[in-house]
């Protein structure tokens, strides 16, 4: 019998980069379909594609088991899944940072201003201080690189 040993690192990097590239293509399509930075759309096609992309992390684990002659323990599966997801995340973060800092410098600020105007129209009795707090709230939980702080 042949003893085939798979380099887990090479496998993880290969599928992490593939998954990250697929996510970048998806994000580019989402960006072009929705017209830039916006709230999540109600487009069902984009939602289905995103669900498939989230579930696609299972395929590399299954593929690793096939290549490894059917042997895969839980520790390896968790290691492979989390590592591939992290690599794809960092690729997406890089793409998102480049998009926000270079392509859409003022888009985030403009969307916050639009939200403020919409709040004034929908809730005219709201005080300016309450509106300011409501608008500032997302900045606490969002990456600082988006707001230029």
Please tell me about this protein's structure:
With 149 residues, this protein is mainly alpha-helical. The protein has helices at 8-34, 44-55, 58-67, 74-103, 107-122, 128-141. The chain is elongated.
List the helices and strands and how they pair.
Blueprint lengths: L7 H27 L9 H12 L2 H10 L6 H30 L3 H16 L5 H14 L8
Summarize the structure.
The model has no long low-confidence stretch (mean pLDDT 79).
**Parts with pLDDT < 50 across at least 5 consecutive residues:** none
The counted number of beta strands is 0
Give the overall shape, derived from the CA principal axes. Answer: elongated
The end-to-end span amounts to 60 Å
Mean pLDDT: 79
Share in helix: over 70%
Helix- and strand-based class? mainly alpha
Alpha carbon gyration radius: 21 Å
| Count of all domains | 2
Question: Main beta sheet: strand number and arrangement?
Answer: none
Order of helices and strands: HHHHHH
Work out the helix count: 6
Fraction in beta strands: under 5%
InterPro entries: DUF4199
Protein name: DUF4199 domain-containing protein
Transmembrane segments: 12-33, 45-64, 76-98
Keywords: Membrane, Transmembrane, Transmembrane helix
State the main characteristics.
elongated; DUF4199 domain-containing protein; 149 residues; membrane; mainly alpha
């Amino acid at each position: 019998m042949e003893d085939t040993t798979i380099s887990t690192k090479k496998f993880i990097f290969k599928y992490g980069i593939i998954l990250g590239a697929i996510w970048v293509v998806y994000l580019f399509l989402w960006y072009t379909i929705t017209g830039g930075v916006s709230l999540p759309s109600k487009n069902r096609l984009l939602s289905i594609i995103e669900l498939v992309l989230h579930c696609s992390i299972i395929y590399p684990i299954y593929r690793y088991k096939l290549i490894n002659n059917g042997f895969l323990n839980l520790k390896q599966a968790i290691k492979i899944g989390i590592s591939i997801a992290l690599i794809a995340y960092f690729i997406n973060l890089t793409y998102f940072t480049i998009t926000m800092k270079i392509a859409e410098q003022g888009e985030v600020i403009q969307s916050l201003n639009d939200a403020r105007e919409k709040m004034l129209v929908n809730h005219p009795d709201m005080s300016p201080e309450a509106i300011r707090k409501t608008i500032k709230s997302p900045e606490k939980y969002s990456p600082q690189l988006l707001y230029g702080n």
